[in-house]
Design a protein that fits this description.
Structural class: mainly beta
CATH class of the largest domain: Mainly Beta
Low-confidence stretches: 1-25, 31-63
Number of domains: 2
Order of helices and strands: EEHEEEEEHEEEEEEEHHEEEEEHEEE
Strand content: 35-45%
CATH topology of the largest domain: Cathepsin D, subunit A, domain 1
Largest sheet: 6 strands, mixed, barrel
Number of strands: 22
Shape: globular
CATH superfamily of the largest domain: Acid Proteases
Radius of gyration: 19 Å
Helix content: under 10%
Number of helices: 5
Mean pLDDT: 70
CATH architecture of the largest domain: Beta Barrel
Strand order of the largest sheet: 12-13-20-14-19-18
Length: 303
């Protein structure tokens, strides 16, 4: 599967038994599959999937609704609730498929013909180790029990599963130090930027005099977009240093924004953030869900 740039969404084409091929996207913030994917047992393979109305066409009707409980899909602006539908078999490779798959429909998500038409959720992604090869522009899926080989100089970040008491499956968080201030983040590669809420901004700012560091407003873009197509105003800040696990970033841009998602997960009043895909731009990395870790390469350019 080719990457559409790590600052954007991972895209590929999959085939469903009830629809024409459709472009899909991967988002590691969705707890449920508004999507599907593919694995590898040894050799890397690729794929993705969630289906929404423009991709299904006239063959999709209300008769395919399961009548089951609404499923929650987390987005930057809000957590959306959608009814589940039967979309049939989703085939990514002969050895990798979801049979009788149920998904949700994002009927108003289509922006243009090049837009992703699906989101790959954690209910599928969390089964695998995912290698994002920045140099080759490829995403590889490895089975949970596959032996993984990666360069010794790659740094490691621990992932912490957490359902926040509301998700149907676990989401994943990590701990980062922004200018030496400890801030928990939810992993959200569907977000176009890395976001911190107001309590996090205030905590970092209050440490300015003590640590001789701080948040510095920038004139960079002041809008951020999530995988559901929601665009929200934000304020961009630059920080000198951010560390997560063994990995250090320098001259980082963070976006201050009180998205509804923080309230949804019960973190509206505490320092919290969303760790976006921009943090991995110009780096190869592996999200090893079975072992609860992220492995990150050195940047292809100097941070």
């Amino acid at each position: 599967m080719e990457l559409a740039g790590l600052g954007e969404l991972v895209q590929s084409t999959v085939t469903t038994m009830s629809a024409q091929p459709a472009t899909k996207a991967a988002d590691h913030d969705c707890s449920r599959n508004v999507t599907t994917g593919r694995k590898s047992s040894g050799d890397p393979t690729t794929g993705t999937a969630v289906v929404h109305l423009p991709a299904i066409g006239p063959s999709f009707s209300a008769s395919t609704a399961t009548g089951g409980p609404l499923r929650t899909v987390f987005g930057l602006a809000a957590a959306g609730k959608f009814p589940p539908y039967r979309v049939g078999d989703v085939i990514v490779a002969p050895e990798v498929r979801l049979e009788g798959h149920e998904s949700v429909i994002l009927g108003d998500w289509l922006v243009d013909s090049a837009s992703p038409q699906g989101v790959l959720g954690l209910d599928l992604l969390a089964r695998y180790a995912l290698l994002f090869d920045e140099a080759a522009g490829l995403l590889h899926f490895y089975a949970a029990d596959a032996e993984l080989n990666y360069p010794e100089d790659w740094g490691e970040i621990r992932l912490i599963p957490d359902d926040f008491g509301i998700a149907a499956g676990s989401l994943y968080t990590l701990v980062a130090y922004v200018e030496r201030v400890r801030i928990p983040f939810m992993l959200d590669l569907g977000a176009s930027g890395t976001i911190i809420n107001r309590p996090a901004v205030e905590r970092i700012a209050s440490s300015y005099f003590r640590l001789n560091f701080g948040l510095h407003p920038t004139r960079l873009r002041d809008r951020i977009t999530d995988a559901l197509g929601k665009t929200e105003a934000s304020r961009a800040y630059s920080v000198q240093r951010l560390r997560a696990g063994d990995v250090v970033w320098r001259s980082v841009v963070l976006y201050g924004h009180d998205g509804s998602i923080f309230e949804e997960i019960g973190a509206g009043d505490e320092a919290f953030g969303l760790f976006g895909s921009d943090m991995f731009r110009d780096r190869s990395f592996m999200i090893d869900f079975p072992r609860s870790r992220i492995l990150v390469s050195k940047p292809s350019r100097t941070d």
